[in-house]
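Exercise: predict the fold of this chain.
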Amino acid sequence: MRGTRHRLPPLVALRAFEAAARHLSFTRAAQELGVTHGAISHQVRGLEEYLGFALFRRLPRRIVLTEAGEALFTKVCTAFDLLEMTTVQVVAAYTKRPLVVSCIATFSMRWLMPRLHQFKARHPDIDIHLMCTGFDCRIPTR
């Protein structure tokens, strides 16, 4: 529904959580996202406070997902995959790229050009770039 507000946790925190859960390391998540270890830790802690439960068990020199963290990680990965796929589809649909047709000049003049106006009438939204080349006529020498 358009205009409906969703009660989502901060997306920056979800992104930090996803990277940390995937790597099982705040340090590697920080390296991937180009931030500090402390920034990842802060984002994850804030997400845990927002949700009201722990996502990681912090052990000496490593972290482990809790049961709740594992469940959230699975769903967040699915959601991020959907966001990525949707973004790719929308960008592809709304990014105009010309159709480049490369052929020899005689084919273009005799076959393609007489039919091109029909194609343009059916597909006015497609820009066509026609590249015509001569063909190489070499006579073999002995």
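Check your answer against the key: The longest strand covers residues 99-104.
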